[in-house]
Amino acid sequence: MTTLHKPLIVFIIATIMLFVSCSSDDDAHQPLTQYTTIDNLLTEIDFQGYAIVTKNGNDLVRQGYGLANQGTALPQDVNLAYRIGSVTKTLTAAAIIQLKRDGLISSFNQTLNEFDPEFPNGSQITIAQLLSHQSGIPDYQFVVEDAYEQGVTLDEDDIYEVILEMISENGFNFVPGSNKQYSNSNFLIAALLIQELTQMSYHEYIQQNIFNPLGMADTYKGTNVINTETHAEGYKNGSINSTYPMTIAFGVGDFSSTPKDMETWTNAVKTNWFTETEKADIFADDVPSGFVDFGLGWFTTQESNTTLFWHGGDINGYWSMIGFIPEYNATIVLLSNHQDDTGTQRNTIIEQLLTNAFN
Asked: 0.85 exceeded by the pTM?
């Protein structure tokens, strides 16, 4: 039996680095403050970064907050790059959808043993379970980061071997298909599958099949150290914190992008990038009000009659979120260069959007 996560006001407890967790608790909470405008909200919570929120074709906000670089006084800008962390997963999932279009996979129900006969209990795990975090495969992130801190650098193939070893030693976190738990391992495996089936690099495949057709010229594989002339500097607690070993984030959170490009991508997904049949596969439906559920690379959050499809990300010095609300033809892009380990800002913004701005 799969699980949803609840309630809306406390459902998203964000964790650090590459991913967003959807765990929750049932603690009592105070009623939300109602902000008169999105700009007022972002100013009040001290959002630092660039924000785009549209409703029915009109901008509710389209501007930067704070500085992209405190040392050079570089302003936030719609054409400036930011690390997007796990928003990368929406691109990885879209590439898997493209594999099906290309005939390189026949069904999202194909199992991992069809591609790697040595994968432990691979006959139990489908592609759909990877993309919706139902595989039970343990997360590699902290194990590999610890190794990096000890001087061991691992590429994506090495990390895959780490995942296999984790499964061999400790098994799955749960029986595949019986639960849902966010794990970066799912999307690293998906990215490796893209490479295996296309005989192209993961990043080149996405470049050719997503970025080029959409004209997303400023979205690219992130580098360990950013170019401060074209990229917002990342900060944590007021100090520069924008360096990260991007091999760890392969297929999981390793892209940088601009607010403009992320708006292009979000609008494409909102409209006709996917067919209606594909959307039925991608987006979780029948989500009760006040709950969030995983789809194929996207979250669905429901509040009353308002549905938000979205994904967020966290990586050293940055947090991000993209999403859309079909009922209001709304697009949301938030790229911040100030790390928020607790996810408080993203949570507050989502709560306000669904309970105040779009209801």
From this structure: yes
